[in-house]
């Protein structure tokens, strides 16, 4: 559909641009990312290198954005981009700002990121009009059930016929 061909690159653009920016200038992003990356590194097996994690997040954004923009694996790309947005959104800690102007700016960025996450969720579940996995699994289950029911009826018929033939053979 033409809407998807237009909307996907539009949604992906911010991620490609932001990812390239993070790859090129990780030092500029490190101060904002550090309050998120340091606790994350201590609780997981991730390295304790904020700039490396900023670059990795940026690379994931470029890759996911490129896949989404080109329509290659758009659901997977959207899910990947959604994963990059969680730490990015957490860096806009507007609640910790005392300066009203800085707080308003961070709040705007936070709301923008949450809005982007909503768009990514929609893109991640978009089946392009084709039945989803749950529907197809239900349909397959119904088909198996129907086949089993038919097999039971057929087996019962065959058993009755065999019993009748055996009875006639004895007589």
Overview of this protein structure:
The protein has helices at residues 2-24, 26-43, 50-70, 74-90, 100-125, 133-170. It has 171 residues and is mostly helical. It folds into two domains: 2-125, no CATH class; 131-171. Helix 1 packs across helix 2 and helix 3 (50-70) packs antiparallel against helix 4 (74-90). The model has no long low-confidence stretch (mean pLDDT 90).
Ends apart, CA distance between termini: 71 Å
Overall pLDDT confidence: 90
Number of strands: 0
Order of helices and strands: HHHHHH
Low-confidence stretches: none
Number of helices: 6
Percentage of β-strand residues: under 5%
Rg, Cα atoms, Å: 28 Å
Biggest sheet descriptor: none
- Structural domains: how many: 2
Shape from CA axes?
elongated
The share of residues in helices is over 70%
Q: What would you call the structural class?
A: mainly alpha
Topology:
Blueprint: H1 2-24, H2 26-43, H3 50-70, H4 74-90, H5 100-125, H6 133-170
GO cellular component, one term: membrane
Membrane topology: Multi-pass membrane protein
Subcellular location: Membrane
Which properties best describe this structure?
171 residues, 2 domains, mainly alpha, DoxX family protein
Short description:
It contains 6 helices and no strands.
């Amino acid at each position: 559909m033409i809407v998807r061909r237009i909307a996907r690159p539009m949604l992906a653009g911010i991620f490609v641009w932001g990812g390239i920016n993070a790859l090129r200038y990780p030092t500029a992003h490190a101060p904002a990312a550090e309050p998120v990356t340091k606790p994350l590194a201590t609780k997981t097996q991730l390295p304790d290198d904020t700039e490396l994690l900023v670059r990795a997040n940026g690379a994931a954004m470029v890759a996911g954005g490129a896949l989404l923009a080109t329509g290659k694996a758009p659901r997977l790309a959207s899910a990947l981009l959604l994963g990059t947005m969680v730490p990015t959104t957490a860096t806009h800690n507007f609640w910790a700002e005392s300066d009203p102007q800085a707080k308003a700016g961070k709040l705007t960025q936070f709301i923008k990121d949450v809005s982007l996450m909503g768009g990514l969720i929609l893109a991640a579940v978009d089946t392009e009009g084709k039945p989803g996995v749950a529907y197809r699994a239900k349909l397959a289950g119904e088909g198996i059930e129907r086949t089993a029911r038919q097999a039971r009826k057929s087996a019962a018929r065959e058993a009755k016929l065999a019993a009748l033939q055996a009875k006639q053979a004895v007589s």
